[in-house]
Amino acid sequence: MTDIVADLQWRGLIKDSTDPDELAKHLANGPVTFYVGFDPTGPSLHIGHLVQILTARRLQQAGHRPLVLVGGATGLIGDPKDAGERTLNAPEVVAGWVRRLQDQLAPFVTFSGDLAARAVNNLDWTAEMSVVEFLRDVGKHFPVNQMLSREIVRARLAAGGISFTEFSYQLLQSNDFFQLHRRYGCTVQFGGSDQWGNITAGVDYCRRQGAAVQAFTTPLITRADGTKFGKTADGQSVWLDPAMTSPYAFYQFWFNTADADVGRYLRCFSFRSHDEIEELIAAGTARPAARAGQRALAEELTTLVHGAHETAQVVAASQALFGRGQLDGLDESTVDAALREAGLLEVAELPSVATLFKQSGLCASLSEARRAVAEGGAYVNNERVADAEAVPGPDRLLYNRFLVLRRGKRTVAGVQLTS
Ligand SMILES: N[C@@H](Cc1ccc(O)cc1)C(=O)O
C-alpha cells in the first residue's frame, strides 16, 4: 500500500483531520471503506466538487473502497449556508438531480473488482425512518448547545435565524456515517473544509455508539490574487456537465491558471507523480511564457472529465483559431463553443470584412479595420485578407454558418450567420 496520507499531504489535500497519524495508520493497514457525499442542489456538479471527486479516485487507486453518496434525503432538506435559508426543491426535481449526479460521478471511480465503488443514496435509510425513531435513536445523541456553537449556526442566528429543518441537517449527515458504517463497514468520511462541522458531528455520533471512525477535510481551493476559484474569466461557474460548460471553456479555464497558482493546482488536481509535477513547476519557473504547467493541467483535467476525443478537439481548436492548425477538421460543436468563448458576432447577412472587424470589436472603427487589412494583420478563417471591402462568400462559411476573424496573432472573434 502506498502512503496515501503522505501523498495527500504533499498535494495539499488535507486541511483538518481527526488525527493525521491515526488516519495514516488506519489507511496503511489494508483496504478501508470510505465515503464522501454530494447534495443534489442542481443538475450538475461544478469544478469546486472536483477536489473531493478526485480525492475519492486517489483513495481508491491507493487500495481503498469508495462509497459515493448522493444525498437524495439531505438534498430535500438543505445544508445551512451563510447566504440564508434555502428554498425547498420539489422531490421529483431532486430525484432527477440525484440520477444526474450519480451518472456524473460514476466515471471517476471503478465499480468492479476487489475495491469496487458503490453508489449510495441516503434516502434509502432516511425515508423509512419514523419521527419517533429519529428523535429517540438519533436526536438523543445530539446536545443542542454543541449544535448551537457551530460556526454556521451562530452566523445564521446572528443574521436573523435558521429553520428547524436546516438546523437538523447535521443529524441526517451524522446518521449517514453511522448507517454506512453498519451496512458497509465504512470507517472514514471526508469532504470539503466547509463540511468539518457536519463531519465531526458524525464522528462523535458514531463513536458514542462504539464505531471506530475517522475523518478529514480537503481545503478550499484559493487563487493567489484573492478572487474566487472556479469561475471563468467572465464570471460564469465552471460546471462538469458539457452542456452547461463546454469542454472548450473547461479547457480554457485551466489553461488560464495564473503562474502563481499553477504549482499548487498541479499538486492538488493532477495524477502525475511528484517528480513529474516538480519538473513541470521547474519548467514554469524557468519559462513561464511557455505555460507548460497550465497546458498539462488543462489537458489532463479535460481528459479526465470530458474524455480524450473532446480534449483532442479543444486542443486542435485552440491552435487552429490562432492560425496554428486546420479549422476544417473541427467538430461543429467545438467550433461553436470555441467561437462563443472568443466572442461571437451574430449577423443576418454578411457585410464587408472591414465592417465585420469593426462590429466584432476586433477593431475600434472602420478606418482601423482598413489599416489592419492594409498592414496584412487581418485574417478570415486563417487566410490573410487582401481587400477590406470584399464581402466573404457563402463558400467561406464553416458548417454553413461560422467565420473566424483574427487580428494579428492573438485576438480572435467569431461570426455566425443566423439566417
Ligand atoms: N453536506 C454535504 C453533502 C453530504 C450529504 C450527506 C452526507 O452524508 C455527506 C455529505 C454538502 O453539502 O456538500
Can you give a write-up of this model?
- By secondary structure, this protein is an alpha/beta fold.
- The chain has three domains: 4-218, 3-Layer(aba) Sandwich (Rossmann fold); 221-323, Tyrosyl-Transfer RNA Synthetase, CATH 1.10.240.10; 343-419, Structural Genomics Hypothetical 15.5 Kd Protein In mrcA-pckA Intergenic Region, Chain A.
- The chain is 45% helix and 12% strand.
- It has 19 helices and ten strands.
- A five-stranded parallel beta sheet has the order 3-2-1-4-5, with helices on both faces. A five-stranded mixed beta sheet has the order 6-10-9-7-8.
- The chain is elongated.
- The relative contact order is 0.09.
- The structure holds tyrosine.
- Tyrosine (TYR) binds next to strand 1 and helix 10.
Shape, per Cα inertia axes = elongated
| Class from helix and strand fractions | alpha/beta
The CA-CA distance between the termini, in Å, is 61 Å
Element order, helices and strands? HHEHEHEHHHHHHEHEHHHHHHEHHEEEE
- Measured on Cα atoms, how large is the radius of gyration? 26 Å
Percent strand equals 5-15%
Q: CATH architecture of the largest domain, please?
A: 3-Layer(aba) Sandwich
GO molecular function: ATP binding; RNA binding; tyrosine-tRNA ligase activity
Binding site for L-tyrosine: 35, 169, 173
Domain Tyrosine--tRNA ligase SYY-like C-terminal: 355-410
Motif ('KMSKS' region): 228-232
